[in-house]
Design goal:
Phage transcriptional regulator, ArpU family; single chain; mainly alpha; 0% strand
Length: 190
């Protein structure tokens, strides 16, 4: 399912959420979710950076011990289990699966921002550059990269986080609780 297909499929829920609440309630909800999503995205950014280092270390350990990459080692773990720290590998793989699930949910929220928030493409670029990069970019770097002025950038960053928080907590999380949705980009079971 493409991003656009997911966004279209979620449109019904977004329309319902918007129509069922007064504008004042929506503004309060977006503001309330802003602080929650800001904390989540800051932690998520740290998680991405930390786990990238861990993955690189594990891959180097596999290269040193069996002269192959980690994916090869995991596929033949029973053969090489005497040379690798198997409990550590299982723990790391479990952590990666949790991170994958969180990443998928955040990506779905960013997809909804891209398609349904005013100026969504720019807002989603800001979110991606600020929080989903494999290295820690400063706000000035992101501003220069996107060619946005300082005041406009901070205003748009706050809007982007507000919309992401609303879509994440009001649409994506309830979808994740719904057993019909699989972990990858909103695909429903028949």
């Amino acid at each position: 399912m493409t991003d656009r297909d997911y966004a279209i499929k979620s449109m019904k829920e977004i329309t319902f959420q918007m129509a069922s609440h007064a504008q004042d309630y929506l503004e309060v909800t977006i503001e309330r979710h802003y602080t929650d999503i800001k904390e989540l995205m800051t932690s998520y950014q740290k998680l991405i950076l930390e786990n990238q280092v861990v993955l690189e270390e594990l891959d180097m350990e596999c290269q040193e011990k069996i002269n192959e990459d980690m994916a090869y080692a995991l596929s033949y773990l029973s053969i090489y289990n005497h040379q690798l720290n198997v409990p550590k590998m299982h723990r790391e793989m479990h952590n990666l699966m949790i991170i994958y699930g969180l990443s998928d949910m955040i990506y779905r929220g960013m997809t909804l921002v891209k398609f349904y928030a005013p100026n969504g493409v720019t807002l989603s670029e800001i979110l991606h550059s600020c929080f989903c990069s494999h290295y820690n970019k400063t706000d000035v770097e992101v501003q220069q990269e996107l060619g946005i002025g300082r005041t406009s950038f901070y205003k748009m960053k706050k809007q982007a986080l507000g919309y992401l928080g609303f879509y994440f907590y009001e649409i994506v999380v309830p979808q994740a609780k719904d057993k019909r949705f699989k972990p990858s980009l909103g695909v429903e079971e028949e």
